[in-house]
Amino acid sequence: MLDVELSLSRIPSQTIVCVGDLMLDQFVYGEVSRVSPEAPVPVIAVKREETTIGGAGNVACNIATLGAACVFVGVVGDDAAGQTLRDAFARHDGRVDARLVVDPERPTIRKLRFVSEHYSSHLLRADWERAAPVPEAIEDEILAQVDAVLPDAGAVVLSDYAKGVLTPRVVRGVIARAKALGKPVIVDPKGRDFAVYRGATLITPNRKELGEASRRPLADLDTVAVAAEELRRTAESDALLVTLSEEGMLLKEAGRSAVHVPAAPVRVRDVSGAGDTVVAVLALMLATEAGFEAAMRAANAAAAVVVGKRGTATVSVLELRSQLLPAAALASEEKIVFDHALLGERVAAWRKQGLRIGFTNGCFDILHPGHVRVLSQARAACDRLVVGLNSDASVKRLKGEGRPIQDVVARADVLAALEAVDLVAVFEEDTPIELIKRLRPNVLIKGSDYRVDQVVGHDVVASYGGEVVLVDLVPGHSTTGILKKSGQAPDRAGGPAVPDTMPG
Q: Domains in the chain, start-ordered, CATH in brackets?
C-alpha cells in the first residue's frame, strides 16, 4: 500500500493513455424570465457561452490539470468541431498528446446545452452524433496509435460512451496489449455486457449501469456488493468500483470484503463529467502503484470537488489534497485531544457521516521517516486517522529512564502538524486497549514488524467486524537507533539498551 501523499507527489511524472469517445461540449448560460410568444417554450436571455472538451476527452483534461501527461486516442469528423477540439487540446501546455483519427463518414460528436443560471438547471440539450461502430480501417489506426505509445504509459483508460470508438475488437486489443506490458487498465463501461472488458484491471460502473448489467434491483449496499462481485468475476477483473452518486462509492476486490466510502457533504451544482474525473484519478493513483482502496478514496474526494463546479469541470492537485486531507486546514492545537469524552464526540460525528475510522499508536519520541511512512499509509486505509500517543509517564515505563526525549506536548504538536493525522489522543496506560474499546475503529493499523495476533486490540476490532492492516516500514529507522548513533541511547530501567518494540 502506497501512502496518499507519496502517490500525489508522483502524479506529475505519470503518463496515461486514454482511448474513447471524444465530444465537444458547449454550454449556453442565461436567464429565463418569459415564455416565447411563438410557442409555449421558455426564452433564455444569453449571458455567456463556454466550449470545452467532453466525453473521454474530459478524462485527458483531468489528467492534464492534475499535472500529469495524457496521450489521448480518439476519433473526430472532418469538420469544424473536430478542429475546435484539436485547438482546445493544444491549450493544455503540451500535457495532452491528442492523436485524433479522422473518420470522414461521421461528424465530430457535439453536445449543446442551454442552462438557466438562476435555477442552475438544464433547459435543453442538442446532440450531433452518429453512434455506430467505427469501420475496420479506423480500428486499425486506433490500435496502431496505442501500440506506439503504450510502452511509456503508467496506465490505460478505456472511456466508453457507446458512440462507436470502443468496438469489441479495439477493447480486446488494447487490454491484451496493456496486460502483456503489465499496465493497469481502467474501464468506464457502457452497456450490459461487461464480458467485453474481460481482463481489465478495474471497471467503474455507476449504480444504474451495474443494475442493468447484473439484471437485478440494487436496493441497498449489500445487493450492490453482491452484484459487483458477480460482474467482477464475469469480467475476470482484479476489482470493480461502483459509483453511487450521493451515497459515495463501493469497491469490491478479488478475495476481499466490499469497502464503502460515503460521498463528501458538498453542494452539488453540476454532475456533468464527474465520472471522467473519477476515472482519471483512479488511473493516476494506480499508475503510482497505490492500492485500489487508496485510489478509490482519492477519486471520491476528486468527485466532491468537481460536482461543486458548473459545467464539465476538472480538479487540481491542490483541490484534491485539500478535500482528501481536510485536517491539513486545521490548526495543530485543534487536532490534539486529552479529554477522551471530547474525542468520542468527534469520532461519533465522523461515524454519523459514514466515514471509516482508523487508529494507530506509539510513543513518537523523535519523529523520523519510519513514523511518517506508517502514518501516511495508515491514512490511506481510512477516511479519518486517530493517533494514540503515550503520555510521558507511559513512555518512561516502556522505554526506561531518560525517555521520552521530548515531552508529550512537543510530541503531540509534531504529530498534529502532519496532514495524515486527523486527531492525536493522549493516553496514560501502557497500551491503548481502553482507547480502542472506546473508539471502536473500523481499521487498526500497525507496522509490518508485528504479526496481526501481536497487535494490541486486534481481537476487540475483529469482534465487531473491523480489520487490522499491517503497513510497510522504512528499514533502518527507529528512535533508539537514532539515539545510539548520537551516543545518547538510555538504558531501559538501568539495564542494557534494547531495540524499540513499538513506534517510538
A: 4-32+39-324 (3.40.1190.20), 329-486 (3.40.50.620)
